[in-house]
Write a structure and sequence with these properties.
14 strands; 10% strand; three-stranded antiparallel sheet; Serine Threonine Protein Phosphatase 5, Tetratricopeptide repeat; globular; 600 residues; metal-binding; mainly alpha
Length: 600
């Protein structure tokens, strides 16, 4: 049963029993999140509706099945699919078994074919540390020698200093908000809440923030391509020792993930996937787990929560005191705990559904893990109440504060990098302070192979101006009615940005402007010619370096003519340059094969 069906079953049962109105009234009287979740926990207990944990062990049979699939595609020279199937074979093989070693051997063959020589050598080295089929020894020794010869012919790509310069702060960093430029400050008013404004003038193309998340959550579609902990895109990935749903780029990432959250969630991963929990729901759960493991004991977490909540609506909102300084940093739970929930704007049905999911998670943690264990019954009860409240808290903070991580990809082997592929989600406490505009003045990107988010000025930003991000509703793409509807549904507000107030048109309804100076028109035609646009779409790094500064200048000059087609074109060209600098996904490394463990 998937989680949505379980929720519907609870509603139907309570309705048929004539209890739904009474329970809704009781839920409305609950004064905090823990009361809401514990109420639903008792209701689901009485209904006997809690799902059982599913167990999907690693087996030789399953590993062999996927290895043979890999062999099939390898013989057809479809190396990208073969690589994925060998990764699944590795994931599903019992630890240190012959199946495990054979999957490594086969993967090394496809890595060699893809000229991933370093990754191939790592696979071969790991193979020889394991119990392995003797008949493969000579073949792998020869393959390693060929890789070493191949590496001599391949020049390692070095970071271009011009790109490094673009992706670097031109100002000092903020003393309190450590990921932000010193040109930014956080202010508060009743209308906008906490928000970010410019302390100085900021030019187009300037980097204004670079932030690491509390943690990233890799999407299931990307499990076979990335390290589940740091999002590295290297091909020598090693599996979780216990579950079939996580690969890591090295032992350090595997150990860190285990310590921070995976030790708790590992035995439940198969259940979560088979029940189709959403990324938002799983993100909330992992946030709660990491909040606890960040502290040596439950009392440490209670103290952090107490201090964080005492600082809400003060200048130290979300901050922690390190030495004699108050700082705001995503790596500290206080910054995540105090993000906006919009609880007062949520419907009763929305809170009810999130409380049901939280109760399900609470039961899994209680029945199938030692996460809630404490020295005494009283201490365990206190921990259970705390976790109940946190699960619902983050079920509400996550939808409006989580940021998607994506990259441009040549998904369809066209040679163009225009398809945006979602890779992961993460919580960035500082970027969550940025309000929305349908005509934003910054744009953010994530460095491919990392969870580092970087924001750049997309429009000139005058001193005292608010910094605006875009939550997915842009005036150039959607009309006002559609944008307002989307923003009200997910983010619970009516947008009053300049594009909404002044009725800015969509790009498709724009026409070339007749008001522009001839010099600007000629410059735009020169630096965004058809040939240059094609090169940018094909990911040509040299072209991107050549035109980036020119496009920044054009955006500065065109700002006073906004909204206009020419400004939109230059902004899109600028974004394409930045996506090239941050990293593109080549063909074959973005679209996942279909694979399941529950069929065995």
């Amino acid at each position: 049963m998937i989680i949505d069906e379980l929720y519907e079953n609870v509603i139907q049962k309570l309705t048929s029993d004539g209890k739904i109105n009474q329970i809704s009234e009781v839920l409305a009287t609950c004064v905090n999140n823990e009361e809401r979740v514990l109420l639903l926990f008792q209701i689901i207990t009485d209904l006997d509706y809690f799902p059982q944990m599913k167990v999907f062990p690693k087996t030789d049979e399953m590993s062999k099945h996927y290895r043979l699939q890999g062999n099939h595609y390898y013989t057809k020279r479809d190396n990208h699919k073969a690589l994925q199937y060998y990764n699944v074979s590795l994931l599903t093989a019992p630890l240190n078994s012959e199946s495990f070693a054979t999957a490594l051997s086969n993967r090394s063959a496809v890595l060699f074919a893809l000229k991933k020589y370093k990754d191939c050598i790592q696979d071969i080295n790991l193979f020889f540390t394991l119990k392995h089929p003797v008949n493969l020894k000579d073949k792998l020794i020869k393959r390693k020698e060929l890789c070493e010869e191949g590496l001599k012919r391949v020049e390692e790509e070095k970071e271009n200093p011009e790109i490094s310069d673009i992706l670097t702060f031109t100002s000092d960093k903020n003393d309190r908000y450590l990921c932000a430029s010193s040109k930014l400050e956080v202010v508060y008013n009743k209308e906008m809440g906490r928000h970010v404004v410019a302390k100085e003038n900021i030019k187009v193309g300037e980097m204004v923030a670079e932030e690491e998340p509390y943690f990233p959550l890799l999407l299931k579609s990307q499990i076979l391509f990335s390290c589940s902990y740091c999002l590295s895109r290297q091909c020598h990935l090693i599996p979780c020792n216990t579950c079939c749903f996580a690969l890591y780029c090295n032992e350090e990432c595997r150990e860190r993930a285990w310590k921070e959250y995976h030790k708790v969630e590992c035995c439940l991963m198969a259940t979560f996937i088979s029940m189709s929990f959403t990324k938002i729901e799983l993100f909330a759960l992992r946030t709660v787990i990491k909040a606890r493991t960040d502290h040596s004991d439950w009392d440490g977490l209670y103290l952090t929560i107490e201090e964080a909540e005492a600082n809400i609506n003060t200048k130290n909102h979300g901050c922690v005191k390190i030495g004699d300084k108050w700082i705001y940093d995503s790596k500290y739970y206080a910054s995540i705990h105090t993000l906006e929930t919009n609880v007062d704007k949520r419907s009763a049905s929305d809170i009810f559904q999130k409380a049901v999911t939280s109760a399900i998670f609470l039961n899994f943690l209680s029945e199938n893990t030692d996460f809630l264990n404490a020295d005494t019954v009283e201490e365990e009860a206190k921990a259970t109440k705390c976790v109940a409240g946190l699960l619902l808290l983050h079920a509400m903070t996550t939808p409006t504060n989580m940021h998607g991580i994506s990259a441009n990809s040549d998904t369809y082997r066209t040679g163009t990098y225009t398809d945006v592929v979602s890779l992961a989600s993460a919580a960035y406490a500082f970027h969550s302070l940025l309000n929305h505009s349908c005509a934003p003045n910054i744009v953010r990107f994530t460095k491919l192979g990392t969870a580092t988010i970087t924001s750049f000025a997309l429009r000139p930003i005058a001193k005292g101006t608010q910094i605006f991000d875009n939550y997915g509703s842009h005036h150039a793409i959607a009309d006002k009615v559609e944008r307002q509807s989307c923003l009200r549904y997910q983010y619970k507000f009516a947008c009053m940005c300049e594009a909404c107030v002044y009725g800015w048109p969509t790009y498709i309804s724009m026409r070339p402007s007749k008001r522009l100076p001839t010099k600007v028109t000629r410059s735009k035609s020169k630096y965004l010619s058809h040939n240059i646009i094609e090169k940018l779409q094909c990911g040509d790094k040299e072209t991107a370096i050549k035109v980036f500064r020119r496009l920044c200048s054009l955006c500065m000059e065109l700002e006073s003519y906004a909204p206009c087609m020419e400004l939109c074109d230059c902004q899109e060209g600028l974004k394409q340059c930045l996506s090239i600098f941050e990293g593109l996904i080549p063909y074959g490394f973005s679209t996942s094969i279909e694979w399941h463990t529950y069929q065995f």
